[in-house]
C-alpha cells in the first residue's frame, strides 16, 4: 500500500504534469484516497509542499464532500490563502463547514486583502462572529475594507504598508527596515509611502530609488510627489484600466481627505482584468457572468434557462414576421428555404460589428472623439459586404431554384439586412452603454432580433412585390 | 488666437477629461490645429507633458497624415515608447515615414523590450539598417531578442537587469547601486539576480529582502534558489498563465544552458493577458484577432468578408436541409414558420455551452481530470432545458396554429436539438483544441451548423412522420 502511494503520488510539487502544466490525475487520486482513509499525515505530506494556487486548483478538482474534509485533515498546515484562488460557490460551501475559531485564526495569518476576500463570502452573522474573535486593531482595518462597496478599490486594497515622515533620511528608512520584525512588514514590498502627520499622502519612494540614494538624503527629496493615486470608492475596473494604461506596479489608495488607507498591487489587478474579460466573454455568449465551471447542475440549469427564455421570445417575434407572409410562402416554397440565409448572414455580419463595438467600449478605445468615424466605417463595411454577398447569393439562388427573379430579390434583401445589421451592431451597444446597461450582456439578443426581423421582412416584402404574390 | 489656444488646450496633463477619463475632443482639436500650422513649439508645449500611453492614445485619434507629422514636429522631444502603445497598423504607417537615423537614435533611448516591439514592425531591410546604425553591444542584445520567435518569452523580455555573484554581501550590492550611473541600471527594478561565472541563474534576491538583511550577509544566504524561471522560447500566453497562477511580479528568462538572458515584468504580461482576451472575444464574434479599431475600411472589409463567406457556406448547408422537405413545407406552411425557432433555440443553447468550454480551455480550468464530469453536466443541462423548452414551445405552437399535433412534434424536436447542441457545444471546442486549432476561432460555425441541421432535420422528419406528409 505504501509503495503504491509512492508510485502514484511522487513527493513534493509534482501536482502538475511537467509537459502540459495540467493537474495530474494520479496525484488527485492519491489525495482523494488519503482523504477517504482519514490519513491526516499523508494528506499533509502531499498537499503542504504545494503553492497556495495549486492547493486551490486541487480543491476544485475534489468532490463536494471531500473539500471541507481536506481543510480539516490539513489542520494548522492549511493555507487559507488557497481559498482566495477558487470559485465563490466552492468557497462558500467550504466555509459553511468550518468553525468560527478556525476562521478567526486563519484571518490573523492572512494578508488583509486575502482576509477580506474570505470574510466577504461569509453570511453577515458569521462574519460578525469572526470579526468579534479578532484583536481590535485587525478588526478595525478589516471592517473598513468590508464597508467599502463590492468592486471598489477599498475591497481590493492591502492595508499592510510602510509609511514614513518626509524628513527621514534614506539611511534612517533602511535602518527602520532592519530593526522591524519581519511579520510587521508586508510580505513583499516595492515602495515606501511618505505621509504628513495627518497621514495625508505626500508621495512615494520606490525601493530602487531609496537604495541608490545617498544615506543622508531626505526622503522628500527623492519621493515622487505626483504619483497617481486612487480613491477608496473607485471602481476596480477603472483602477485596472489605470494600471494597464500607465504600466503601474502598485497604486496608493486614499480617502476623501487624501489620507493614505491602503495600497493596490498589480497581482490583484491581474485577477480583476482576467475576471472582467471572462465576464465579457460569458455575457456575449449568453451565460451569466457569475457562472463558474464548478457550479452545480441546478444552478446552471436555472441561470441558462432565464437567458434562453428571453431569446425564445425574440425567436417568436421573428417567427411572427414569417407568419405574416404565410400565403406567399405557400405560393412559393423557395422563399421559406432562402429566407433563413438572409437572416443568418445579417446576424453574423451584425455580430462582427457588435463584438468590435462592445470590446472597444470595454477598453475605452471608443469615445466621443472617434465614434462618428467608426459608425461611418462600419456602415460602409456593412453596405459593401451587403452588396458583395447580395450579388453572390442572388446568383446562387437564381440558379438553385432556376428562377431568375430570386436573384435581384435576394440581392436587395441581403444588402438591406447587412446595412441594417451594421447600424444595429454599433448603435445598440453604444445606446446601452449610455443608458448604463452592460452592452456585453444585452446587445446580442437585440441585434439578432433586428437582423431576423429585417432579414425576413425585407426578403418577403421584396419577393411579394417582384412576383406579385398577394 | 493665442487666447483661444489657452482656452481650448489647457497646459499640462489635461488630455483626459477628469470626470470620464476619456480623451478631450478640444485638446485633440488644438493639437490638430498646431500640426496644421506646422507650429513645432506649440505641438511640443501640448504633447510633451503627456505620459507615453496618452501620447499613444492621442496618435490613434489623429488622421493618418497627421501622425508622422506629429512625430516630426516633436523632434527630440518625441518619446518613441508611445509607439508601443498603439495598434500595429498605425505603428507601421508612422514608422514607414521616418528616416533610419531617427529610428536608430530612438532605439538607443528605449528600454530593450520597447525597442524590440518597434523593430519587429519594420520591414526586414529597414530593420537591418537600423541595427547596423547601433553600437555593437546594443545590436547584439536586440538581435538576440529579434531571433526569438514572435509570441515567445525572448521577444517580451527586458535585457537590462542587475546580476551579481553569490559571494557578494548585501552591503556590497547596495554600494554597487550607488556607484553605478543611473542610466546603466534599469528604469525601475525590484530584484537582483544571482549568477555563477558562466552566467547561470542561481537565484534572486528581492530588494526588500536585500534592505532588510544585515550588510555583511552574503547574497547566496538570502537568495531564493527555487525561483520560478521561464525558457527563452516559452510561449508568452504560457508565461502569462504562470504570472496569474502564482501572483508573480517578474520572472527571469533563461536559455537552454540555464544562463540568464533577460527578465519579464508583469506590466508587459498585463498587455499579453489583455491581448489574449481581446483575441478570444473577437474570434468568438467572427472577427479577425488582428483587427484593430483604427484599421482602414478596406482592411476590415476584406477580413470580415472571408469569415462571412465561410458562414454563408454553412447557411446554404442548412438551407439544403430545408429544401429536402420542400413538398412538406408546401403542404403545411406552419412548419416553415416554426422550424427557425427550433434551430435558433438550439443555436443559443449550444453557444452557451461552447462559450463556457472555450473559456475554460483558455484558462486551463478544463483538463482531463474534470472533462467527463463537465461533459455529463452540460449534456444533462441541455436535455433538461430541451425538455422544458420543448414543453413550452409545444404548447405555444399548438395553440398558435390551432393544430394539436404541432405540440408533440415541436417538443420532441426541441429536446433533440438542445441535447445535440450541448454535446456539440462541448465536444467541438475540445476536439479542435486537441487538433491544435484555436477553438475560439472555429467552434462557432461548426456548432451552429450542427444545431441548424439537427434543428431543421429533426423537426421536419418528426413532422413528416406524425402528419404522414409524403
TrEMBL record, chains A, B:
<dbReference type="Pfam" id="PF00571">
    <property type="entry name" value="CBS"/>
</dbReference>
<feature type="transmembrane region" description="Helical">
    <location>
        <begin position="444"/>
        <end position="467"/>
    </location>
</feature>
<dbReference type="GO" id="GO:0015095">
    <property type="term" value="F:magnesium ion transmembrane transporter activity"/>
</dbReference>
<keyword id="KW-1133">Transmembrane helix</keyword>
<dbReference type="Pfam" id="PF03448">
    <property type="entry name" value="MgtE_N"/>
</dbReference>
<comment type="function">
    <text>Acts as a magnesium transporter.</text>
</comment>
<feature type="domain" description="CBS">
    <location>
        <begin position="223"/>
        <end position="279"/>
    </location>
</feature>
<dbReference type="InterPro" id="IPR006668">
    <property type="entry name" value="Mg_transptr_MgtE_intracell_dom"/>
</dbReference>
<dbReference type="GO" id="GO:0005886">
    <property type="term" value="C:plasma membrane"/>
</dbReference>
<keyword id="KW-1003">Cell membrane</keyword>
<feature type="compositionally biased region" description="Basic and acidic residues">
    <location>
        <begin position="1"/>
        <end position="25"/>
    </location>
</feature>
<feature type="transmembrane region" description="Helical">
    <location>
        <begin position="305"/>
        <end position="322"/>
    </location>
</feature>
<comment type="subunit">
    <text>Homodimer.</text>
</comment>
<feature type="transmembrane region" description="Helical">
    <location>
        <begin position="407"/>
        <end position="432"/>
    </location>
</feature>
<keyword id="KW-0479">Metal-binding</keyword>
<comment type="similarity">
    <text>Belongs to the SLC41A transporter family.</text>
</comment>
<protein>
    <recommendedName>
        <fullName>Magnesium transporter MgtE</fullName>
    </recommendedName>
</protein>
<keyword id="KW-0812">Transmembrane</keyword>
<keyword id="KW-0129">CBS domain</keyword>
<dbReference type="Pfam" id="PF01769">
    <property type="entry name" value="MgtE"/>
</dbReference>
<dbReference type="InterPro" id="IPR006667">
    <property type="entry name" value="SLC41_membr_dom"/>
</dbReference>
<keyword id="KW-0813">Transport</keyword>
<feature type="transmembrane region" description="Helical">
    <location>
        <begin position="379"/>
        <end position="401"/>
    </location>
</feature>
<dbReference type="InterPro" id="IPR046342">
    <property type="entry name" value="CBS_dom_sf"/>
</dbReference>
<keyword id="KW-0472">Membrane</keyword>
<dbReference type="InterPro" id="IPR036739">
    <property type="entry name" value="SLC41_membr_dom_sf"/>
</dbReference>
<feature type="region of interest" description="Disordered">
    <location>
        <begin position="1"/>
        <end position="26"/>
    </location>
</feature>
<dbReference type="GO" id="GO:0046872">
    <property type="term" value="F:metal ion binding"/>
</dbReference>
<keyword id="KW-0460">Magnesium</keyword>
<dbReference type="InterPro" id="IPR006669">
    <property type="entry name" value="MgtE_transporter"/>
</dbReference>
<dbReference type="InterPro" id="IPR000644">
    <property type="entry name" value="CBS_dom"/>
</dbReference>
<dbReference type="InterPro" id="IPR038076">
    <property type="entry name" value="MgtE_N_sf"/>
</dbReference>
Amino acid at each position: 500500500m505504501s509503495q503504491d502511494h509512492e508510485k502514484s503520488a511522487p513527493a513534493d510539487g509534482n501536482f502538475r504534469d511537467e509537459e502540459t502544466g495540467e493537474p495530474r490525475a494520479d496525484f488527485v487520486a492519491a489525495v482523494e484516497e488519503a482523504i477517504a482513509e482519514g490519513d491526516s499525515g499523508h494528506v499533509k505530506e502531499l498537499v503542504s509542499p504545494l503553492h497556495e494556487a495549486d492547493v486551490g486548483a486541487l480543491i476544485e478538482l475534489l468532490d463536494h464532500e471531500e473539500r471541507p474534509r481536506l481543510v480539516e485533515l490539513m489542520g494548522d498546515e492549511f493555507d487559507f490563502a488557497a481559498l482566495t484562488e477558487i470559485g465563490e460557490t466552492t468557497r462558500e460551501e467550504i466555509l459553511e463547514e468550518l468553525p468560527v475559531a478556525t476562521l478567526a485564526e486563519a484571518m490573523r495569518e492572512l494578508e488583509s486583502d486575502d482576509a477580506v476576500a474570505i470574510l466577504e463570502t461569509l453570511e453577515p452573522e458569521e462574519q460578525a462572529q469572526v470579526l468579534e474573535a479578532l484583536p481590535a486593531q485587525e478588526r478595525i482595518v478589516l471592517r473598513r475594507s468590508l464597508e467599502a462597496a463590492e468592486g471598489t478599490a477599498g475591497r481590493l486594497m492591502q492595508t499592510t504598508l510602510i509609511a514614513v515622515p518626509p524628513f527621514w533620511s534614506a539611511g534612517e528608512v533602511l535602518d527602520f527596515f532592519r530593526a522591524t520584525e519581519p511579520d510587521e512588514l508586508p510580505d513583499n514590498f516595492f515602495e515606501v509611502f511618505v505621509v504628513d502627520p495627518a497621514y495625508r499622502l505626500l508621495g512615494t519612494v520606490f525601493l530602487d530609488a531609496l537604495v541608490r540614494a545617498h544615506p543622508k538624503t531626505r526622503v522628500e527629496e527623492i519621493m515622487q510627489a505626483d504619483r497617481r493615486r486612487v480613491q477608496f470608492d473607485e471602481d476596480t475596473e477603472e483602477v485596472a484600466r489605470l494600471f494597464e494604461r500607465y504600466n503601474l506596479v502598485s497604486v496608493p489608495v486614499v480617502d476623501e481627505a487624501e489620507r493614505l488607507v491602503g495600497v493596490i498591487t498589480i497581482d490583484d489587478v491581474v485577477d480583476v482584468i482576467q475576471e472582467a474579460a471572462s465576464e465579457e466573454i460569458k455575457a456575449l455568449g449568453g451565460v451569466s457572468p457569475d457562472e463558474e465551471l464548478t457550479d452545480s447542475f441546478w444552478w446552471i440549469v436555472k441561470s441558462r434557462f432565464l437567458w434562453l427564455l428571453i431569446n425564445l421570445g425574440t425567436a417568436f417575434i421573428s417567427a411572427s414576421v414569417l407568419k405574416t407572409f404565410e400565403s406567399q410562402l405557400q405560393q412559393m416554397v423557395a422563399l421559406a428555404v432562402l429566407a433563413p440565409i438572409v437572416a443568418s448572414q445579417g446576424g453574423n455580419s451584425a455580430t462582427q460589428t457588435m463584438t468590435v463595438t462592445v470590446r472597444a467600449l470595454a477598453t475605452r478605445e471608443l469615445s466621443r472623439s472617434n465614434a462618428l468615424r467608426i459608425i461611418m466605417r462600419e456602415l460602409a463595411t456593412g453596405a459593401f459586404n451587403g452588396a458583395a454577398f447580395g450579388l453572390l447569393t442572388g446568383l446562387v439562388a437564381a440558379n438553385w431554384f432556376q428562377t431568375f427573379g430570386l436573384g435581384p430579390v435576394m440581392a436587395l434583401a441581403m444588402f438591406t439586412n447587412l446595412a441594417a445589421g451594421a447600424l444595429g451592431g454599433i448603435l445598440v451597444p453604444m445606446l446601452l452603454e449610455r443608458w448604463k446597461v452592460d452592452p456585453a450582456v444585452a446587445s446580442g439578443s437585440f441585434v439578432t432580433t433586428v437582423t431576423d426581423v429585417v432579414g425576413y421582412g425585407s426578403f418577403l416584402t421584396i419577393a411579394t412585390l417582384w412576383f406579385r404574390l398577394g
